[in-house]
């Protein structure tokens, strides 16, 4: 089983961000963390036997806006349930991930860091309303290396107005210079509720740019194992993300977090005050067998994991055979794999329609 912990506080709201996060509720931090601990204790006791958590991912928002002292209480509850060699990742932003904070998180057992860098170009960072500059990002990464983190991810956004292949190459070259083992390269999306929504001019729709990026990263030694994720070696791939793609059960703790157990999806209260007042209240969505098949195909085609052929019906299998003849997908040991992640949704919808 996987565990996701949501921290909804941010120093500033990025113009593209649609995640459940707040820049004006810092006075609720202690109450929120108390509610979080209450839900975590409940979830672990209800759904798990000891030593059953395979991976932990602390996301946001910005987890580095919460002091390590607050995480100590959280890890006291969590630690007895962790499997040996559990991958524990925390997201953080360069401006708030101080050396002291990174040291504190490492002492608690965090062994993987994901930096929200987005770019090493200061002009682009301002456009995105990021709270750091390129120098701050480099310093934070170097601090993490010095402290002993040897599994580090950097998020990079591309497809932003003003982006060019030459500009993006500088970002990827810097990541190589810093000896980063993993990167996530996301194409900008314009989501409702963000400052960039309805500003179509801010986004570049250039499929050719994506292909150029993928090829450049491949030549830099980064293997693409999901539409947005690249790793130098298998050992640095995100085990937590793989768990989602494999449709494993996961607990979601925090305001607006989502959990999935067997055929049920659980949604916590999104509003901070609502969540704090009752962190054990959920909305439950019951997934049908067909819903789960659709998700397995869509997720399987977006990554190198693929999906088992035997979940499909005869009509769907005939379409698989068509795509195999056209060499758009391939089959190995009863699993179906997509050869071009950018075509993932198109191929999945063709098979499932």
TrEMBL record:
**Family per record:** Belongs to the anaerobic coproporphyrinogen-III oxidase family. HemW subfamily.
Protein name, UniProt field: Heme chaperone HemW
This entry's Gene Ontology molecular function terms read: 4 iron, 4 sulfur cluster binding; coproporphyrinogen oxidase activity; metal ion binding
Species source reads Halarcobacter anaerophilus
| Coiled-coil stretches noted in the UniProt entry, renumbered to this chain | 313-340
Q: Name one GO cellular component term.
A: cytoplasm
PROSITE patterns assigned: RADICAL_SAM (PS51918)
Q: Give the UniProt keywords, A-Z.
A: 4Fe-4S, Chaperone, Coiled coil, Cytoplasm, Heme, Iron, Iron-sulfur, Metal-binding, S-adenosyl-L-methionine
The prosthetic group or cofactor this protein requires is: [4Fe-4S] cluster
User: Any idea where the Radical SAM core domain is?
Assistant: 1-226
Under CDD domains, the record lists: Radical_SAM
Which compartments is it annotated to reside in?
A: Cytoplasm
Provide the GO biological process annotations.
porphyrin-containing compound biosynthetic process
Tell me the function of this protein.
Probably acts as a heme chaperone, transferring heme to an unknown acceptor. Binds one molecule of heme per monomer, possibly covalently. Binds 1 [4Fe-4S] cluster. The cluster is coordinated with 3 cysteines and an exchangeable S-adenosyl-L-methionine.
Xref: SMART domains: Elp3 (SM00729)
